[in-house]
Amino acid sequence: MEQSVRRANFLVWAWTLFVLVVVYLPIACGALAGLSKSRYFGFPVAAWSTDWWTRAMASIEVKTIVETSLAVAGVVTLVSVVVAFFGALAFARYDWKGRRLYQKLVLLPIFFPQPVLGLALLLWFNAVGVQPSWTTAIFAHLVWIVPVVTLVIAIRVYGFDPALEEAAADLGASRLFILREVTLPILWPGVWSGALFAFLLSWGNFPLSLYTTGADSTVPEWLYAKMVAGYTPMVPAIGTMSTLAAASVLLVGGAIALLLRRRAALNAAPAEG
Amino acid sequence: MRSSAAAGTEASAAAPRKPFRLSRGALAALPVGVTLALGFLAPLATVAAYAFATPKTFDVFRSFTFANFAAVFDPSNTVWTSFVWSIGLAAATAALLAVIAYPIAWGLTRVFGRYAGFVSVLFVFPLFVSENVRLYGWTLFFLKNGVLDGTLKLIGLSGPEVLYTPGMILFGMLYVYLPFMLFPMTLGLAMVPRDLVEAARDLGASRLMIWREVELPLAMPGILIGLLLTFVLAVGAVAESKVLGGQSVIVITHDIEIAFTFAQNWPLGSALALLLTAIVSALSLVALSKLDLDRILGRR
């Protein structure tokens, strides 16, 4: 029995590692292509060069699309975290009449194909006479990212003991004081993870941006345009840079999340005991 | 259990100022509600309105006709093949991903222990890299003189010509939508109490029997969410067929996009989009109405 369990565990590990290799293989291929000297990709890479990286860094066009992407992701993060914070309280904390219905409504945009949502939004903007630009893309991202962040924060809210808020209220604390001194510190790790998700999902989003940015362009969109027509190794080079940027945000953000969680656990321990 | 406890504390706290507390949940839900009403329901309503407008015009809200649907269902129109392709590819994606993700989800809940968090992050991260970049990586891999072909040439073989085929589109969908199966499934498997499995084993149940009679039924909500999510996302997917499929297959979202862009026939595109939306929402609403989200998400 013991041996068969060990064999099963080994197989599960082996399969998982194999799938992980497959998951990261195309990302590695992109990195290779961005570092090869020749204009057309061939393997094994005959001559290496960081030329395309330097060119990408110097390009003004690239600077503009990066700025657009950052602006979109930044605003999306701020707005979605605030909206989703209260959304998550309504989702998991308060008992109210429409809660069951609301929980399902929140999920609908996640359970919807994004390219179709993007096209529907384009039609809607046109119907109300709004010219699509990077600001409308912010709105489009929010439709999908607010529900995701709501779920991320809601998971944290489920583990939150409402008695803490009640106790503070019994001691005469005002509602704002409770929010600032009790609710927020406990939910902070969830809020932070939500912010991380919001930023990174917006940064990497392609299907919603494609139809809703109008004449402006985000990084994934620009890369797609170049893949279709006008490929140079600058395309995989910028793709790799964008991936590395996301990875560093995740790494730094994850480290902060761990710290916050540890601190929240420390703060909660005496209160619960 | 949780909801009854919450209801108790809520009721006792609500006693002194009842009218205010009653609407607190609704108040908190308001910003999300407004976002979704303006950004989700209103656009879909616009699509519905356009679907009944005169073909090849922009006469929305001023004309009402079934001509667009007649055009879609006209036997001489081959747009139905796009629907068949999309639904077929999506069904295959959901079914195959269930098999691919199950051992990994099982590992995340039972085997990986303290590595589980790190392994999850590794599976989440690709979601932050846009799918066209990742799919393009596969083109570089399978391309003539690409990574696979180039490696095989070193030992005197040559790579298979799989690029721009329907099979490659399916592969791309499996690749892109894996996390959307894996994480709901992991949540589902985490809901299976371990002592129940132990008890079944002590009573002499075989492994297959434990899996079929205990593990699978208890994990079903999570698995169902995974199946639903991967199906609805894949049925509307377009990047896979564009980047990896060449023009070998036109999926339904591609048809919709063509109607909206080159063809400038918004009413026809809207009719197609509305049909696709009907399929997606019928499935989602039926499945979601059966799920208890508090139980699935609350258990941590």
Automatic annotation (TrEMBL), chain A:
InterPro entries reported in the protein's UniProt record: Bact_Polyamine_Transport (IPR051789), MetI-like (IPR000515), MetI-like_sf (IPR035906)
The entry's keywords: Cell membrane, Membrane, Transmembrane, Transmembrane helix, Transport
Annotated compartments: Cell membrane
Membrane topology annotation: Multi-pass membrane protein
Residue ranges of the TM segments: 12-35, 70-93, 105-125, 137-158, 178-201, 237-260
Record-stated family: Belongs to the binding-protein-dependent transport system permease family. CysTW subfamily.
Entry protein name: Spermidine/putrescine ABC transporter permease
